[in-house]
Design a protein that fits this description.
Blueprint (H helix, E strand, L loop, with lengths): L1 H20 L24 H6 L9 H11 L12 H4 L46 H10 L9 H9 L2 H11 L5 H12 L8 H6 L8 H11 L22 E2 L11 H13 L5 H8 L10 H4 L8 E2 L21 H9 L19 H12 L4 H9 L1
Antiparallel strand pairs: 1-2
Length: 384
């Protein structure tokens, strides 16, 4: 247990070092110096939040406001129909209720949209971890032909420049004209304000034993014990996100059509031919077949075929459907999938096995997972 906790702390520390090391030498406008002061949920350590703010992208009120407007602006897509919020909507806990993301012209990707809530704490972004930072992640969907469809980042910049208010605000916030790096910085800054950590479970964990009922308390014991959930969905005071930030093959998607070894060889060949760019990788990740290679697309290590990032569990009640492909409609289906031992395949994680949970135990575990819904997130949804 101590080794696992130490691993999570080291993962978060490594992420902080990456954020601090990346330096685009962004000029500062006058408004950029007005520091943003967050209202952190009780479960979020203030020192951790502060540590993970990149040195080249300090948080300011004006920058967050600019990022918010860009996040909801459909003009950043080629046909003015899709924004970041289309697939990461506050109405659905900054995720999406569709099985897989839909972009311009109703085009469908191959992966379910993960929540933006607490995304700043992810060691890497996307299901396969192909982006190291929120800033890097923000650039991908803009030019993906399935998502927002802009022909290039230069085209995105020109589109934003055409809005006089944006041109003025970028000058005020960044001390210079619109560019793609600062567009990404602004969006990432807004995303860093979307936090969750004020759930009934948090009150229970802080000592209020009446905050969750007896069934949920039994579920928590199952989560830590027989259910073995905590093996990957780690939780502790310094990393209260219910994830180990690692990648695992649990068999989801392994029944999908396609020869995974053949697809993997194609990716290896693309890398050898120097054709595996950030843009081509982004497109492969949403292509049928290739998408199921998971973490392999990034590492190109055979052991990572079909491995995907452990998602955090906060607010999981509100972000159905589940798994990277949206294949599980309910929390009970997810628990049943694990109870049966996942889906057998050559790369199945060694820790996946049948759990022999009873129907009552499944209900108890489901009840516990629902206590991870933050009051602030539920209130936000009700206000939409």
């Amino acid at each position: 247990m101590k080794n696992r906790l130490r691993g999570v702390k080291l993962s978060l520390l490594a992420a902080a070092i990456v954020f601090a090391a990346i330096n685009f030498a962004a000029p500062e406008g006058a408004a950029q110096k007005e520091k943003y002061k967050p209202a952190l949920p009780p479960a979020i350590p203030a020192d951790l939040w502060e540590m993970l703010i990149p040195q080249d992208n300090p948080m300011t009120e004006a920058k967050v406001a600019l990022g918010r407007d860009l996040y909801f602006d459909k003009r950043l897509s080629v046909d003015n129909t899709v924004s970041c919020a289309t697939c990461h909507d506050p109405k659905t806990a900054f995720a999406e209720s569709k099985i897989v993301a839909e972009g311009i012209g109703g085009k469908k990707g191959a992966r379910n949209s993960p929540t933006v809530l607490n995304a700043m704490f992810n060691v890497e972004q996307f299901w396969d971890g192909r982006a190291k930072t929120l800033e890097e992640q923000a650039k991908g969907p803009l030019t993906n032909p399935i998502e927002m469809g802009m022909p290039s980042h230069d085209a995105v910049v020109e589109r934003v420049k055409q809005v006089p208010e944006y041109a003025k605000r970028f000058q005020e916030v960044f001390g210079g004209p619109v560019n793609i790096d600062n567009i990404a910085r602004a969006i990432a800054s807004f995303e860093r304000t979307q936090l969750s950590g004020d759930s009934p479970f948090d009150r229970f964990n802080a000592g209020d034993k009446g905050a969750i009922n007896e069934q949920a308390q039994r579920g928590f014991e199952l989560f830590k014990g027989k259910g073995r959930c905590i093996t990957c969905h780690e939780f502790n005071a310094s990393s209260p996100f219910f994830t180990d930030f690692k990648y695992h093959n649990i068999g989801v998607g392994m029944k999908a059509s396609g020869n995974f070894e053949s697809l993997a060889r194609q990716v290896q060949q693309m890398a050898q031919d120097r054709r595996l760019t950030a843009e081509s990788l982004d497109r492969l990740s949403l292509s049928q077949g290739f998408s199921e290679l998971g973490r392999f697309l990034v590492t190109r290590e055979p052991k990572d075929i079909g491995a995907f990032k452990t998602p955090p569990l906060r607010d999981i009640e509100l972000t159905a459907p589940y798994m990277h492909d949206g294949s599980q409609k309910t929390l009970r289906e997810v628990i049943d999938f694990y109870n049966k031992g996942g889906e057998t395949n050559p790369n199945l994680d060694g820790g996946i096995r049948k759990l022999d949970l009873t129907d009552q135990e499944i209900s108890d575990l489901e009840a516990f997972l629902k206590t991870l819904t933050s009051d602030s997130v539920r209130k936000l949804i009700n206000e939409q």
